[in-house]
Specification:
Layout: H1 3-30, E1 35-39, H2 53-66, E2 70-74, E3 78-84, E4 101-107, E5 110-112, H3 118-121, H4 124-132, E6 155-157, H5 160-191, H6 200-205, H7 211-238, H8 242-257, H9 261-277, E7 278-282, H10 284-304, H11 316-337
Antiparallel strand pairs: 1-2, 1-7, 2-3, 3-4, 5-6
Transmembrane segments: 12-34, 161-182, 213-235, 286-311
Keywords: Membrane, Transmembrane, Transmembrane helix
């Protein structure tokens, strides 16, 4: 196997790996399995004797509505909640594990509002509403769906890290697609034959795309894909508890701004205890993204580590004849000089 054939094999392998990575990008984009969140137990996370009663009641109301007996799984576009009927009791059960599960999927949205509208918008009902109700194109709640308890000033938006993740995924898909096209062009370019022309001078000056240029472009696309994906994975890892903490964190920040330090400290305590009982696991979409990084890295090494030279413009017979003529000319020149 000559050098050019081996180079073609490596580029073909690079294309296959890039296609697999592209498929994984698309799967990770649409599957709602980036992470799973649930409570380790359904007991009270904070005793009402250690915090203010109002803080305790609001915390328990949120946990009862959103997290107790529920398994949440998150994607870029979707958020799903699976309810287990057998887990409603906090006591251990000796009955067979015939759990009745029901699931429902909606948007991965959280409420967004100005601090001046905090009392009107911050509620457990709105958090549930943002997930499971359709929104207008502007992100505001439709008037037809709004009840008297939900102010039209309230909006539902994707978390900032989700918006950034979405952009990074689309950029990764675009770069991976460009990398596949460039490496395919390199492969086609290596098989390209010179066109037979009557004017031999034109045949000598005929050029094909330089493989060095294509290799550089392919390497740049692969590096950008890797950078975007690594940033995405880091962002997802460090934001894995964002949605779970959003409700309590909004309350803590609000009471801190209005200088009610006791409530702010109470909610900081709730967040700390809530963190201790949360069970967060990364899902299949995250694993697909990790494999996409691995495949893109190998594809980058396979593609950038080989070079396919330009196709020879002259057949071997003409090249041998030209070499013989050069040797004879050199010998005659040498004999004349002597």
């Amino acid at each position: 196997m000559d050098r050019k054939t081996r180079a073609r094999g490596f580029i073909m392998l690079s294309i296959i790996l890039s296609v697999l990575a592209l498929v994984f990008f698309i799967i990770a984009l649409f599957l709602p399995y980036w992470k799973f969140i649930r409570l380790r137990h359904n007991l009270q996370i904070v005793d009402y004797t250690s915090i203010d009663l109002l803080v305790h009641l609001e915390s328990e109301q949120f946990l009862d509505s959103m997290y107790r007996s529920n398994l949440h799984y998150f994607g870029i576009y979707k958020r799903c909640i699976e309810h287990s009927a057998s887990a409603t009791s906090s006591k251990p059960s000796t009955a067979p594990a015939d759990t009745i599960k029901s699931g429902r999927c909606g948007h991965n949205y959280v409420p967004k509002f100005d601090d001046s509208d905090f009392k009107a918008c911050h509620s457990v009902k709105l958090y549930h509403y943002c997930i499971f109700h359709s929104l207008s194109s502007s992100g505001s709640l439709p008037a037809s769906d709004s009840s008297e308890e939900i102010s039209p000033k309230c909006e539902c938006r994707s978390p900032d890290y989700i918006t950034i993740s979405m952009v990074l995924l689309y950029l990764s898909i675009a770069c991976a697609f460009c990398c596949i096209l460039i490496n395919s062009l390199r492969l086609i370019n290596s098989f390209r034959l010179p066109i037979a022309e009557k004017n031999k001078s034109k045949q000598r000056t005929r050029k094909i795309i330089d493989d060095r240029l294509l290799k550089i472009l392919s390497a740049i696309c692969s590096l950008f894909t890797l950078v975007f994906l690594i940033i995405l994975l880091i962002l997802q890892k460090f934001s894995e508890k964002y949605e779970a903490f959003k409700f309590f964190e909004s309350l803590r920040q609000h009471y801190s701004r209005v200088l009610i330090s006791e409530f702010s400290k109470n909610f900081a305590t709730v967040i700390d205890r809530f963190d201790n009982v949360l069970d967060v696991k990364l899902g299949a979409s995250f694993v697909f993204a990790v494999f996409a990084v691995l495949f893109t890295s190998i594809a980058f090494l396979c593609s950038s580590g080989v070079h396919i030279g330009a196709y020879d413009r002259f057949p071997p017979e003409q090249k041998n004849m030209a070499n013989e003529l050069r040797i004879k000319d050199g010998e005659s020149t040498f004999s004349t000089a002597v």
